[in-house]
Amino acid sequence: MKIADHPHDRLRERTLIAPKELDALISRVREMKLDPKKTYHYEWPDRGYAVIAPAREGYGKHVVKTVLAPRMKPPGEKVAGIYGAFFDELFCILGGPC
Questions:
Q1: Does the pTM of the predicted model rise above 0.85?
Q2: Residue 60 contacts by C-beta under 8 Å, 6 or more apart in sequence?
Q3: Over the range 65-92, which residues count as b (16 or more CB within 10 Å of their CB) and which as e?
Q4: Nearest by Cα to 42 from 6, 17, 12
Q5: CA–CA separation, 14 and 67 (whole Å)
Q6: Residue predicted with more confidence, 10 or 1
Q7: Cα torsion for 41, 44, 49, 53, to the nearest 10°?
């Protein structure tokens, strides 16, 4: 039985981000319509990044592929620049500045 998936494993290894924050991001990503040929990232300021990419290379729905530590450089375009209010609301719900 699989207890956790890759993003949750990396979250525990690399950051102090709460699992509920990643779960909320995963739910939001499922609602989004992103360019199937692009990779994006979401930043938790000073805490880390989530890499958002197509489930299959070059096509399909986007998923959270992994979580990076704050010192790591994320690939792709910052998703908040595209869906700013969408993610600002999420960050506020999770206890960040509103």
A1: no
A2: 36, 54
A3: bbbbeeeeebeeeebbeebeeebeebbe
A4: 17
A5: 8
A6: 10
A7: -30
The answer to whether 11 and 24 are in contact (CB under 8 A) is no
Arithmetic mean of pLDDT, 87-95:
63
Structure tokens that stand for 48 in this block:
């880390």
The Cα 5–Cα 74 span in angstroms is 19
Instruction: Give residue for tokens 């096509």.
Output: 59
Q: What is the mean pLDDT of residues 44-59?
A: 87
Mean pLDDT score, 54-80: 89
Instruction: Tell me whether residue 57 is exposed, middle or buried, using C-beta atoms within 10 angstroms of its C-beta: 0 to 12, 13 to 18, 19 or more.
Output: exposed
